[in-house]
């Protein structure tokens, strides 16, 4: 049965992006944190690439929260951050500049430094025998690279293990895809999805630490009657919303929307499933929301759907019609589970062939770092 796991709630609003301070803050807490045994001789040697970023900092939080065993951990970022001190699980680390020699002796590397860095350094790491779990879109659609959500298609990475002496690439899907498929896959397994229409409401955190800072700054500026600083999105974000900032392609879809289409097909190994998406950035600090309309091959009534979702791992159902209480991004921020609600029969479809659901998930956590660390756990 799913439980709603809480993490770092005290820091939710004040410093939503300061994973760095979160890591050291939690270390100064007394109690179980002082006796954590993650540093283990038998664990793998790990590297975090892009450790100073929004996802990189969340990697550290998730590794800590899940007691991920490691023999050693290397903190890698750009030249800009090299030399910075970082405290993690009571140890002091110095951030090192990522170079082609960074991966000697590294068994698992968690990458979140952007697509171009992954393209350059991913193959270098694999060459040295490292298993790379990559958060960028660089390798996701490559045929020989598994694209994995552990609750959905763990079989895709079968045979890839630390200790095999062989490097490999594994791709973490796009955050909107992960959050969507966490909720839809259990229903798909039961009644086979024929068509899926997704509308997203995506948070600032999906665009990294700088975007989160800009939303905070703009909110202050607008409230003070000043013109908003528009460096990251080139338009006002606070008290506004706009079409996702990824490039618009020749078919009129933006890249984020086409990721939902293509990645769903790959993860489900189903080239026939029809998917369409509209992706929108909303001025929410952290955690994405998605409205999802489904058409099934076999009938599925809403009560059965609700029961299926209640039993699904990594999901929590928040679906209280009387109290008008359904998932919100705030509620899922800093939490592991994806929340699903508004589970209802689509009145525009005959019989029980259609459902509407509303899903919220912390995309830095399950949409990125948590999913990657779960993949890493399956490697050992
Ligand atoms: N945010 C999300 O929810 C999310 C979800 C899924 C996937 N991702 C993917 O994860 C990646 C990072 O996203 P983010 O949101 O964490 O971005 P971010 O906050 O902007 O962080 C970027 C990280 O990459 C590092 N970096 C930049 N250039 C580098 C270089 N030349 N060499 C080594 N490191 C370099 C940065 O180090 P410095 O501090 O030294 O600049 C920083 O640690 C992207 O590929 C993104 O698409 C993000």
From TrEMBL:
The active site is at 175 (acyl-thioester intermediate), 288 (proton acceptor). Pfam families: Semialdhyde_dh, Semialdhyde_dhC. Signal peptide: none annotated. It catalyses: L-aspartate 4-semialdehyde + phosphate + NADP(+) = 4-phospho-L-aspartate + NADPH + H(+). GO terms for biological process: diaminopimelate biosynthetic process; isoleucine biosynthetic process; lysine biosynthetic process via diaminopimelate; methionine biosynthetic process; threonine biosynthetic process. Its EC number is 1.2.1.11. SMART domains: Semialdhyde_dh. Residues 45-160 form the Semialdehyde dehydrogenase NAD-binding domain. Pathway: Amino-acid biosynthesis; L-methionine biosynthesis via de novo pathway; L-homoserine from L-aspartate: step 2/3; Amino-acid biosynthesis; L-threonine biosynthesis; L-threonine from L-aspartate: step 2/5. Keywords: Amino-acid biosynthesis, Diaminopimelate biosynthesis, Lysine biosynthesis, Methionine biosynthesis, NADP, Oxidoreductase, Threonine biosynthesis. It comes from the Eukaryota. One of its GO terms (molecular function) is NADP binding. Belongs to the aspartate-semialdehyde dehydrogenase family. Homodimer. This is aspartate-semialdehyde dehydrogenase. It comes from Malus baccata.
């Amino acid at each position: 049965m799913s439980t709603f796991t809480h993490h770092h709630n005290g820091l939710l609003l004040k410093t939503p992006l300061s994973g760095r301070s979160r890591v050291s803050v939690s270390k100064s807490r007394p109690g179980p944190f002082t006796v954590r045994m993650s540093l283990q001789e038998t664990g793998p040697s790990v590297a975090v690439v892009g450790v100073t970023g929004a996802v990189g900092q969340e990697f550290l939080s998730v590794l800590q929260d899940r007691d991920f065993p490691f023999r050693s951990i290397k903190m890698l970022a750009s030249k800009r951050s090299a030399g910075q001190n970082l405290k993690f699980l009571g140890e002091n680390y110095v951030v090192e500049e990522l170079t082609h020699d960074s991966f000697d002796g590294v068994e698992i590397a968690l990458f979140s430094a952007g697509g171009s860095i992954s393209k350059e350094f991913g193959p270098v790491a694999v060459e040295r025998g490292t298993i790379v779990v990559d958060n960028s879109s660089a390798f996701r659609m490559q045929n020989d690279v598994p694209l994995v959500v552990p609750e959905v298609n763990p079989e895709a990475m079968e045979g890839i293990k630390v200790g095999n002496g062989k490097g490999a690439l594994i791709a973490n899907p796009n955050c909107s895809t992960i959050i969507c498929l966490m909720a839809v896959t259990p229903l798909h397994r039961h009644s086979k999805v024929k068509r899926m229409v997704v509308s997203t409401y995506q948070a600032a955190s999906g665009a990294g630490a700088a975007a989160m800072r800009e939303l905070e700054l703009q909110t202050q500026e607008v409230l003070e009657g000043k013109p908003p600083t528009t460096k990251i999105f080139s338009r006002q974000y606070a008290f506004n919303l706009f079409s996702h900032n990824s490039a618009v392609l020749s078919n009129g879809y933006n890249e984020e929307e086409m990721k939902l289409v293509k990645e769903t097909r790959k993860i489900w190994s189903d080239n026939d499933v029809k998917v369409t998406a509209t992706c929108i950035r909303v001025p929410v600090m952290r955690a994405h929301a998605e409205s999802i309309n489904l058409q099934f091959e076999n009938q599925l009534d809403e009560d059965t759907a609700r029961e299926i979702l209640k039993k699904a791992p990594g999901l929590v159902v928040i679906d209280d019609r009387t109290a008008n209480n359904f998932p919100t991004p705030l509620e899922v921020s800093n939490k592991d589970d994806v929340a699903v609600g508004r589970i209802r029969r689509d009145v525009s479809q005959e019989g029980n062939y259609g459902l509407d659901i509303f899903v919220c998930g912390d995309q830095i956590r399950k949409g990125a770092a948590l999913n990657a660390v779960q993949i890493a756990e399956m490697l050992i």
